[in-house]
TrEMBL record:
<dbReference type="Pfam" id="PF01546">
    <property type="entry name" value="Peptidase_M20"/>
</dbReference>
<dbReference type="InterPro" id="IPR002933">
    <property type="entry name" value="Peptidase_M20"/>
</dbReference>
<protein>
    <submittedName>
        <fullName>Uncharacterized protein</fullName>
    </submittedName>
</protein>
<dbReference type="GO" id="GO:0005783">
    <property type="term" value="C:endoplasmic reticulum"/>
</dbReference>
<dbReference type="GO" id="GO:0009850">
    <property type="term" value="P:auxin metabolic process"/>
</dbReference>
<dbReference type="GO" id="GO:0010179">
    <property type="term" value="F:IAA-Ala conjugate hydrolase activity"/>
</dbReference>
<dbReference type="InterPro" id="IPR017439">
    <property type="entry name" value="Amidohydrolase"/>
</dbReference>
Length: 98
C-alpha cells in the first residue's frame, strides 16, 4: 500500500520515467522494525551525477561528490509522500478523541 502511494506521488513529482524500481539489497537497517508498526516505503533518490567525474565513486566513499541539485527533489518527495498520505488518511475532526 505505501509502496504504491510513494510511487504515485513520485511519478507526479518527477514524471513516471524518473521513478525506477531499485534492485533488492542487503542493508544494515532497523527499518523492518518500523514496518512492523506502520505502513512504510523505503525509497532512495539519485544523488550521483555522471557528468562529474569524481561523483562516480560509491556513496560511502570519501571521494563521492553529491549532486546537491537532487536534494530539493528528495525533500519535496518525502514531504509530498507524507502530506498526501496524511490528507488521504486523516480522521475527521468530529471523530478525534477529546
Amino acid at each position: 500500500m505505501m509502496y504504491e502511494h510513494a510511487k504515485r506521488v513520485g511519478e507526479k513529482l518527477v514524471e513516471e520515467r524518473g521513478v525506477q524500481l531499485y534492485s533488492m539489497i542487503m542493508g544494515a537497517e532497523d527499518f523492518s522494525f518500523y514496518a512492523e508498526q506502520m505502513p512504510v516505503a523505503f525509497f532512495m533518490i539519485g544523488v550521483g551525477n555522471q557528468t562529474i567525474k569524481s561523483s562516480i565513486k560509491g556513496l560511502h566513499s570519501p571521494h563521492f561528490i553529491i549532486d546537491e541539485d537532487a536534494l530539493p527533489v528528495g525533500a519535496s518527495l518525502h514531504a509530498a509522500v507524507a502530506i498526501t498520505y496524511l490528507d488521504q488518511h486523516a480522521m475527521p475532526a468530529h471523530s478525534l478523541p477529546t
